[in-house]
């Protein structure tokens, strides 16, 4: 699954620089995660780094973007080869 940022986001700016895939960017009102670039840090780290640094715990799994570990690994390989 890709991750998502909820309305509880306080725009603290700590998640964006932690994303190794550059999937996080400032949206109109809050930060957003590009699901095409989010691998939940598979291939880089054992746990999603954005979730680790978020002070308000507003980065859950996106229930509309279910992906297996294998699919996330394949996405990582495609992103890093590009």
From TrEMBL:
Residues 1-29, 31-64 form the 4Fe-4S ferredoxin-type domain. Keywords: 4Fe-4S, Iron, Iron-sulfur, Metal-binding. PROSITE patterns: 4FE4S_FER_1, 4FE4S_FER_2. The keyword Iron-sulfur applies. It comes from the Bacteria. PANTHER family: PHOTOSYSTEM I IRON-SULFUR CENTER (PTHR24960:SF79), PHOTOSYSTEM I IRON-SULFUR CENTER-RELATED (PTHR24960). This is YfhL family 4Fe-4S dicluster ferredoxin. It comes from Chitinimonas viridis.
